[in-house]
């Protein structure tokens, strides 16, 4: 299946999941108070480890390998399954200690219940990897959509019944349970006990998987250190506000970059020895990602205050201030999040691991400095750390695929220019009408459409690639 076909089905699944997230963020936030959200944010620091450690990078090796044996798949399956069970036991035993660190006794039952998701996700990791390797994203999207739909229904029902944070807990359990069952049914491969875990097979992927696992670990640490540090040294209320702002920021990361990375990896793995094809494909993907995320997140930064007050209410007013710093961060991360697909496809997870260490040092350093000030400074330093991290990551990636910064700059220059024009036009207008004028949904939507129109006209003028697409669509329509 081609990259466009992969992206089509991944987009279908992801946009549906965005709708689910909107229900979580908008509807459930009205039923679940900030302190309860803060509890779930603390628990998610541990839950995210399930995704990190469930396969130790072995599923990615299944997709990347040119030649795949049944023995390797079986070895990966059993390793993942035992790892998931072990993690569940560890979390249950460690939950009192973790709760004591946060000074939140209510965290103990939350962590114990969430530990169920570990074996559920790990036992289906190999089946999912096989489906992705064969680019069967139509099946995958159907599974993800149905699982998300049922899980959000469970969350909404429980939230309305007053279960608070447990509505989010059982949403996660339902999602993982339904996904695991359906991935098993969708894949024709079945595990066997005859050869079990073969050391020779593990050795053949050890270098790739070990480096990827270490990268995932440090990446997990840097991405979750903010929640841990805020929860430990600030307050649950501030963490709840930061968590909601962060989830809003993640929208482009969890949509466009997820689609791009998931669609790219199998395709790039098949052409891993052709740098010209990889360079062309990757730069085009970066262009499309920035084409959407740059104006979207820039507009959100400008309109964060009225947006938050209207959508979430006065109790979440701090979210608007935090978003002004996190929204620009999302633009950088939307590009950086796709780089892993290139390093993995080229089999250079060693470079990925080293870059992960650099990124972790920069981000955690920013968090440790920022926590001594206020949450706004904390978020601003997070943005600075991402800017600094972008340079070594992009330098190594472009060098690996025989490209350079000039190629990248030429590719994205029209998007940058059009975004600047849009921001200047919107700020000029706000300066004259006042931000308080945008106090109703019709006015917010109208002003957003105004900014979108300015951006569309600007990008159409500046980008030959966009003009070509417009002309192609116009010819098809009127031919």
Number of strands: 0
> What characteristic shape results from the CA principal axes?
globular
End-to-end CA span: 29 Å
Fraction of residues in helix? over 70%
Overall pLDDT:
83
**Uncertain stretches:** none
Calculate Rg over CA atoms. 23 Å
Helix-strand string? HHHHHHHHHHHHHHHHHHHH
Explain what the structure shows.
The protein has 479 residues and is mainly alpha-helical. It has a domain at 33-197. 85% of the residues lie in helices and 0% in strands. The protein has helices spanning 3-31, 34-53, 58-64, 70-102, 107-114, 117-122, 125-133, 137-160, 165-186, 199-233, 236-270, 275-302, 304-311, 317-336, 339-345, 349-370, 375-400, 405-433, 441-462, 464-478. The longest helix has 35 residues, at 199-233. The protein is globular, with a radius of gyration of 23 Å. It starts with a helix and ends with a helix. The mean pLDDT is 83.
């Amino acid at each position: 299946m081609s990259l466009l076909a992969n992206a089509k089905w991944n987009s279908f699944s992801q946009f549906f999941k965005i709708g689910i997230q909107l229900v979580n963020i908008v509807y459930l936030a009205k039923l679940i108070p900030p302190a309860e959200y803060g509890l779930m944010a603390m628990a998610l620091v541990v839950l995210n480890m399930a995704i990190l450690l469930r396969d130790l990078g072995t599923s990615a090796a299944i997709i990347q390998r040119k030649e795949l044996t049944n023995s390797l798949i079986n070895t990966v399956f059993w390793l993942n399954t035992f790892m998931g069970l072990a993690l569940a036991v560890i979390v249950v035993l460690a939950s009192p200690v973790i709760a004591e660190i946060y000074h939140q006794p209510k965290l103990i039952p939350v962590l114990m219940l969430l530990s169920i998701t570990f074996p559920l996700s790990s036992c289906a990791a190999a089946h999912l990897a096989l489906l992705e390797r064969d680019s069967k994203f139509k099946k995958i999207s159907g599974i993800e959509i149905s699982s998300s739909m049922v899980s959000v229904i469970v969350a909404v029902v429980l939230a309305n019944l007053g279960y608070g944070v447990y509505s989010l807990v059982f949403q996660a359990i339902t999602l993982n349970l339904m996904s695991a069952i359906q991935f098993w049914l969708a894949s024709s491969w079945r595990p066997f006990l005859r050869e079990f875990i073969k050391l020779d097979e593990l050795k053949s992927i050890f270098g790739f998987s070990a480096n990827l696992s270490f990268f995932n670990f440090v990446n997990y640490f840097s991405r979750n250190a903010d929640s841990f540090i805020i929860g430990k040294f600030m307050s649950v209320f501030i963490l709840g506000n930061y968590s909601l702002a962060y989830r809003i920021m993640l929208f482009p990361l969890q949509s466009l970059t997820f689609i791009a990375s998931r669609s790219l990896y199998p395709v790039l793995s098949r052409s891993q020895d052709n740098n010209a094809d990889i360079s062309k494909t990757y730069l085009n993907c970066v262009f499309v990602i920035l084409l959407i995320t740059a104006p979207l997140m820039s507009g959100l930064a400008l309109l964060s205050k009225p947006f938050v007050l209207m959508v979430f209410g006065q109790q979440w007013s701090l979210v608007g201030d935090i978003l002004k710093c996190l929204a620009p961060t999302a633009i950088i991360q939307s590009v950086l999040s796709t780089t892993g697909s290139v390093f993995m496809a080229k089999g250079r997870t060693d470079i990925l691991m080293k870059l992960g260490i650099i990124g972790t040092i920069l981000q955690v350093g920013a968090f440790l400095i920022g926590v001594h000030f206020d949450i706004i400074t904390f978020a601003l330093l997070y943005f600075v750390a991402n800017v600094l991290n972008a340079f070594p990551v992009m330098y190594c990636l472009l060098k690996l695929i025989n490209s350079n910064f000039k190629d990248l700059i030429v590719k994205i220059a029209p998007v940058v220019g059009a975004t600047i024009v849009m921001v200047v036009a919107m700020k000029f207008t706000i300066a004259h009408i006042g931000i308080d004028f945008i106090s109703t949904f019709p006015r917010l939507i109208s002003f957003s459409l105004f900014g979108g129109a300015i951006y569309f006209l600007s990008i159409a003028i500046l980008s030959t690639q966009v003009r070509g697409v417009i002309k192609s669509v116009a010819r098809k329509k009127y031919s």
